[in-house]
Structure formats: C-alpha cells, structure tokens
Design brief:
Elements: H1 15-25, H2 30-37, H3 41-48, H4 56-66, H5 70-74
Length: 86
C-alpha cells in the first residue's frame, strides 16, 4: 500500500452534467431517454440544465435506463475516503 496514491478529481461535474454525459455515452437523445423512463423530455432537459432536482426516485429510474448506479448520477464528484486508514 506504500505505492498507493489516491486519484484526484480534475473537473467539477454537476448532477445535470452527469445525467447528460451518461445519456450521450449511451447514445440516447433526450426523447429516447424519456420514452425509456417515462420521465417527460422537458423534465430531462430541466435536470440536465440543473433547473430541476433529480430526486431519489428519478435517479433510480434514470440509473436503470442508463445502466449505471443512481449514485453515479446523484453524487458525480463524491470522493470516497480510504477506509483502511481509519
């Protein structure tokens, strides 16, 4: 573990940006994601532009559609502390 060096976050990503990035990586349009999730396209646009908060239930639905854990969307810049050092 002496050679272990913790990675540092190099960019700030908002919740909306994380949703947009994951959507684009899956090559979905907002309309396609709306059809998959049942969330209106206007709401997805609002989430991606940080005008609408994602909420737990929407995060779960979006996570399933985007094939990622909801925490990836809700906490895009979350830093996990080394638990072995405690």
């Amino acid at each position: 573990m002496k050679n272990y060096r913790k990675a540092k976050r190099t960019i700030e990503v908002s919740v909306g940006e994380s949703v947009r990035i994951m959507r684009e990586l899956q090559e979905f349009s907002q309309s396609e994601l709306a059809q998959l999730t049942g969330i209106p396209q206007s709401t997805i646009s609002g989430i991606e532009n940080n005008r609408i908060k994602i909420g737990v239930e929407r995060a779960k639905v979006l996570g399933r559609a985007l094939k990622c854990h909801p925490a990836v969307l809700v906490f895009p810049g979350w830093e996990i502390k080394d638990l072995t050092a405690a």
